[in-house]
Amino acid sequence: MVFIAFILAAFVFVKTVSYGIYEWKQNQNKVASIIIFILSFVVLFFTPFLVYLR
């Protein structure tokens, strides 16, 4: 179960980081892209941990 959660979290991480890069390059919205990067790292690291605690 942890492996499946990690794969899904990695998929969401890649999609979210790519959107953060899009915000940075296309819209010149640096504050929003930094917040998106931080949230994507939080999701990547805490999702398998929370599944393990369950």
From TrEMBL:
This is Uncharacterized protein. The chain crosses the membrane at residues 34-53. The keyword Transmembrane helix applies. Keywords: Membrane, Transmembrane, Transmembrane helix.
